[in-house]
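1st attempt posting a full record on here, be nice pls
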Amino acid sequence: MTARETVRADEAVPADVAVRADEAPVRERAEPSPGAPAPEAPRPVTRVLTPALVLALVALCLVSASVGAYHIPLGDLLASLAHKVGVGGHALDRVGESVLWNVRLPRVVLALLVGASLGCAGALMQGVFGNPLAEPGVIGISSGAAVGAVASIALGIDFLGNWTVSVFAFVAGLATVLLVYALSRSGGRTEVVTLILTGIAVNAFAGALIGLFVFFADNAQVSQITFWQLGSLAQATWPKVLAVLPCALAGLAVAPLYARKLDLLALGERPARHLGVDVERLRLVLVLVVALLTAAAVAVSGIISFVGLLVPHLLRMVAGPGHRFLVPASALGGGLVLVGADLAARTVAAPAELPLGVLTALFGSPFFFWLLRRTRRKQGGWA
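the predicted structure (as tokens):
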């Protein structure tokens, strides 16, 4: 063998072996990022999970409308619904009709809209920031939007009628999310630790502002502000449903259109740009959508945290990180969780009613702590 042949043999075999040896451990260690496209394995799961979520949501809505201090049998409930839409059935007695159509159904529909908005906003936040710890409530968007709503109440501002609170909540929520987004970026990427610490600071500052408004408010305004701090759907009415409906439907309709671009963004900013994604425009649009969804929810329910964190992450663990499934499924899952939480809030301690925001935080906080520890362990520490 000549010297030239020896060089060729050294370049061919060892180099090929070295490349394969170097690639194998990387494939074993690599883990999909929160927004990475879903692998093919979970696809059958998504085909089963989507109709399961829809059926569970419909069933839970019917149960929630039936159960309460005034019990309405499921058969009578279905008969009243059929009677209203003109396909048979029969009307209930005067008390039953009033309870069902003026108390129960507005509350169920409002819980569905608020939960779907928070769940979808959480999925978008996690995709935009590129980590599973982002959530509107955790990083301060909910509390920022609540400051806007509380300010409109305490200052007696009502020049926009029923839309005043929603508009103020939207503006404050948008300002908060832009602030958190700007402060949590370093070196062209979003740091998880900075994101959480910024959220802690924003929540503390928002709490201080709410405290100031409470200090200067009268007794009637204090009771309204307390509603925003605890979170509740006890004051649900059809006008409130109609007030939040346009914002929620607009956000929920726009969000799935950006699912594929979120999958590409999960590959990294540079690969996404090479694949034709305008990264800055994408983030700006989705920040607006998140602020719209969160403000719409906060404007009618007060601060309800952890729904946007818990639901998308659980769905990602079950079915993979593909946003074409994750975004709409998070909306369904968020509605399912909040309808169930509202049902528990008004029945567990009956005749008293637990604050809905307190209940979700009570169960969401341990989950967030577990998720925080799990993420830190996978990354080998953040020091």
